[in-house]
Design goal:
By secondary structure, this protein is an alpha+beta fold. It is built from 16 helices and 9 strands.
Length: 471
């Protein structure tokens, strides 16, 4: 497919492949509009694994697929001069696109271009990137469709200083959307290399990026509504956080940076990311909650040292975890939802929050103390876990959660080891876990009915709050 690799004529002239000045906004360039349109043309043709079955009903002629991929490659070449820091990636991307077409559009393999993309090696505040990959979008589209996204790096000096001196995390990127194709008009707020279609999984990835603008925007929208519904009184700091998108973005990027590194720090009785491990979903829920509560703990220390953003992080962790997480997504192994329920129940049972006369009240100072108690309880579970067999550790974790969340009445795990066939390996016993092992409480069931609409409205949300980028 040499025509895919070669320059094409645009607006009557030869497409330049170098020499154009860098610095313009990618999304303002007409080539971005053409690229996005070509990607959206390709996506419906693809199977779940990213291939194109030309024998399927509604499939395009091969020459039409070749033409669309050629337009993607041409647009990448036209936009590349705006992004000299990604030159090696864009060159590899055009080659991968051509190889996919030449191979008959079978399962795509973009390993070479993925390995050439190294955004964490040049973290600069406001730096923009153009990414095109066949990929699924976590919490979004499960299929490996071609997607295109333009984003900017969030890396202010104060964050760079904290990463360099206290929270070393050389692979982390905070990012914000500029524009995207349909796979990101979803609830996905991450860009992870492991979602890309490749021939083999690399031993190690070199970056991971989180869209702090989407996280901040949906947090602000959902929590504002929650405050109205529950009559919750906020402090001046918390109220200010909900009113200021940029301030909320900075809180989330700090939260995410500390959370991300925590997966590999602490007393860890198992692989922190649980890669290729089959475990009950409450184990994932406790791990994610542990990382968030560590961010909460570190943010408190930063606040005590005079960094106001630390207090913002603490409010964000508490309110997002307790009110948005439990009610977002379905109830099938919703480990983040379970973690949010656990935090709420723990604070309630330790008298840091009350639901009285149909109004919610939180003693914010007490809530900080109690949240620290929960963090220590989870850390104790982890520290003791290194001396336990896997199955015993899973039961101890279930017991911890069950102290505060009522298991489903039909739960086999809640009945204890005698109810399970212990002759089976632990991974087989995971099949006995109910999809909703810890159902919503009556409080959350009632809140869910009132928040369902606003949570649904945050699909595809960006920094403009309730405004979406058109796909």
């Amino acid at each position: 497919m040499t025509e895919i690799l070669a320059p094409e004529r645009v607006d009557g002239g030869v497409l330049p492949v170098d020499g154009s000045p860098a610095g313009g906004r990618v999304v303002d360039h007409p080539a971005w509009t053409r690229l996005k349109a070509a990607v959206e043309e390709i996506r419906p043709w693809q199977s779940k694994d990213g291939s194109i079955d030309f024998a399927a009903e509604g499939a395009p002629a091969r020459k039409d697929a070749e033409d669309a991929v050629g337009r993607v490659a041409a647009a990448v070449r036209e936009l590349a001069p705006l992004l000299p820091h990604d030159a090696a990636y864009h060159e590899a991307l055009v080659v991968d696109l051509g190889r996919w077409a030449e191979g008959g559009f079978e399962v795509p393999d973009f390993l070479d271009s993925l390995m050439a993309f190294q955004p964490a090696g040049h973290r600069e505040d406001g730096l923009q990137h153009l990414v095109v990959f066949p990929m699924y979008t976590q919490n979004g589209n499960p299929d490996r469709n071609v997607e295109a996204v333009v984003f900017r790096v969030v890396w202010p000096d104060w964050l760079a200083e904290l990463e360099a001196t206290r929270y070393d995390n050389p692979l982390f990127l905070g990012i914000t959307f500029e524009d995207f194709t349909a796979g990101y008009d979803t609830n996905s707020a991450v860009l992870f290399p492991e979602t890309v279609a490749v021939r083999e999984v690399p031993e190690r990835f070199s970056w991971g990026a989180i869209f702090c603008d989407r996280e901040a925007a949906r947090f602000r929208k959902v929590i504002k509504e929650t405050v109205q519904i529950t009559g919750l009184e906020l402090t001046e700091v918390a109220e200010g956080l909900l009113q200021d998108q940029e301030r909320a973005e900075k809180a989330f990027v700090l939260w995410d940076m500390i959370h991300d590194r925590t997966h590999s720090h602490g007393d860890l009785p198992f692989d922190p990311f649980m890669i290729k491990q089959r475990q009950p979903f409450w184990m994932y829920g406790l791990e994610e909650l542990r990382c968030d509560l560590t961010a909460f703990h570190e943010a408190g220390k930063l606040a005590d040292e005079g960094l106001d953003r630390g207090r913002d992080v603490q409010y964000a962790v508490l309110m997002d975890r307790m009110f948005r997480f439990p009610l977002t997504g379905d109830r099938t192994r919703n480990y983040d939802g379970m973690g949010g329920q656990l935090l709420f129940a723990y604070l309630h049972k330790h008298d840091a929050l009350r639901w009285t006369d149909n109004r919610l009240s939180i003693d914010w100072d007490r809530a900080r103390e109690v949240t620290e108690m929960l963090r220590k309880d989870i850390e104790t579970l982890y520290r003791d876990g290194i001396d336990r067999p896997k199955l015993v550790h899973w039961f101890k974790a279930h017991e911890l959660v069950s102290q505060y969340l009522a298991p489903h009445p039909g739960s086999v795990w809640a009945k204890g080891p005698d109810a399970l066939d212990l002759s089976q390996p632990p991974r087989k016993l995971v099949d006995e876990v109910l999809p909703d092992e810890f159902p919503l409480s009556m409080f959350y069931e009632a809140l869910a009915k009132k928040l369902r609409g606003v949570i649904a409205s945050t699909k595809g949300i960006t920094a403009a709050g309730d405004q979406k980028i058109a796909a």
